Amino acid sequence: MKVKTILVSQPEPKMENSPYLRLIEKEKVKVDFRPFIHVEGVDAKGVRQQKIDLHNFTAIILTSRNSVDHFFRIAEEMRFKVPDTMKYFCQSEAVAYYLQKYVVYRKRKIYVGKRFFNELVPLFKKYKDEKFLLPSSDVLKPIVPETLDDAGLAWKRGIFYKTVISDLSDLRNVYYDVLVFFSPSGIESLLKNFPDFKQNDTRIAVFGNSTIKAATDAGLRIDIQAPTPETPSMTMALQKYITSVNKK
User: Fold this and answer.
1) What is d(CA 248, CA 175) in angstroms, rounded to the nearest whole number?
2) pLDDT at 15
3) What is the pLDDT of residue 39?
4) With 92 labelled, which of 65, 100, 111, 164 sits at a CA distance of 20 to 30 A?
5) Where are the domains of the chain?
6) How far apart are CA 201 and CA 5, in angstroms?
7) pTM, rounded to two decimals
8) Residue 248: its pLDDT value, please?
9) Residue 107's pLDDT is what?
10) How far apart are CA 247 and CA 241, in angstroms?
11) Topology (CATH) of 40-162
12) Positions in the chain whose pLDDT score sits under 50
């Protein structure tokens, strides 16, 4: 069956040169974006109940833009003036760049990984005497605490925000040829919103091993997956699949 409509379970990209735009133009398909999950902040009281005092930390570990936003939100709610001496360890350049929303970049001590969390280890070991705070979601990849423990750091996790399933009830009678997922939480949201979901001719596209496992465990048929050596991005995987089925 040909692909004419795609639903991506994420917010619409704000980039003018989004690869999804190229996919739409080249394959003449309709692509909609709808977050299946969203983030809600934990209030200052909820953070205090975790026995977290921001004054006790000399370094902040930031793994995402959400962690940046919610750390500074909590600091403001607690009326904590973040000292200029605070060190920031950012998982990627994208996170470090986003940090400029809150601090004057050139005047702060900012240390940046390449992409994956464990690539921060050499930096952690260089500053192993710091007291680290990890502002995170209630959902955390196991590699993060494992890496911090293995590095022998003095660190504490604070749940500053939570991943919440979005209400998708308005999509109950809307059908797409392809549903695209990037996390196990997206699969969970689909099944919570539509417990009677029948895949039938709907194609499922998934990104990453954990999402593949969640979809398989849920009994879904996976038709498109990324990354692979041939298709390292989701848009490339979609392009390859659509080109294959639409030319028949």
Assistant:
1) 22
2) 78
3) 93
4) 164
5) 1-12+22-36+186-191+233-248, 40-162
6) 12
7) 0.79
8) 67
9) 73
10) 10
11) Rossmann fold (3.40.50)
12) none
